[in-house]
Amino acid sequence: MRSIEYGGKLAGIAIALVYLCFFQDQPVFEWVLIGVILITVGIPHGSLDHLLQNPKISNKNLVKFIGKYLTIILVYLAVWLLVPFPALLAFLGMSAYHFGQSHFLRTPIWHLKKTTYLLTGTFYLSIIFWGDFAATTEILSGIFDASPLAGFGWYLIIGSFVSAAVLIVRNLPNKWWPHLAEMILMGYLFYQLPLLLGFILYFGFWHALPSMQVEYSALKQHLGSQQLKAFVGKMIPFTGASILGMAAILFVLYPRSSTEELILLFFVLVSLISAPHIWYMNHFLESREA
Ligand SMILES: CC1=C(/C=C/C(C)=C/C=C/C(C)=C/C=O)C(C)(C)CCC1
Predict the structure, then answer these.
(1) What band does 289 get if pLDDT is binned at 50, 70 and 90?
(2) b/e string for 162-201 if b means 16 or more Cβ within 10 A?
(3) Where are the domains of the chain?
């Protein structure tokens, strides 16, 4: 199973190199990849949260689960509408934590665990954002003017790298070097890529696919004889609902919005489904380690 994770990461590196060598400034390459990665691993990895809570969930508990999920979504939507800037900061903070957490799925850590997650995720996200800061600023302009933060990037990148590195070495005295080598090599590569391509490769192959593997390992004994087929089948309903829901909202707003506005709106929608997902996934991963 570990080979799927390594295969995914190798595919991510290969795609990045192919892009840099042959497809620079070809938006079709980027958009097709974004679409494919989102539909095949990005959205599906968050579609089994109800089963991670309880693999044999009853219909009554499923309804309760959906109720709680929707309540978190609605509360967070209200926060976005009332105070967009704090809502964005909360989204970035919880994303950094959640992405950082998936770097330690196979190498559990104990010392300042949550801080280590946060700093590791902050490192990767800041590399991706400041690697193409013009694009980041343009998308965020619907919320605030990020351009004065251009010079702040290297402080954040180096600061988060050094502090995450100290914590990783302390946590994994014999296994720290693959983490740090990956941070340096992938950091270099992600920094070269356009914003959305860097983000989708990181999201797909460094977060969603490894998370999906852990989900599969936890659920497979409940999936009957054709485990993989049943696993994929169980991902379809909520993946389909999320994609259709988001597509419908974007489609309605499409005629009166610019590309940047639609991208921002897309990420706001992603943040709404991510908030409960991050919560449930954290609960699942923490109880797995206990
Ligand atoms: C890429 C990108 C952004 C951040 C996206 C994030 C942080 C996504 C997180 C997704 C998660 C946590 C999914 C859950 O599994 C911004 C800054 C909004 C705008 C610029 C482009």
Answers:
(1) low
(2) ebbbebbeebbeeebeebeeebeebbebbbbbbbbbbbbb
(3) 2-289
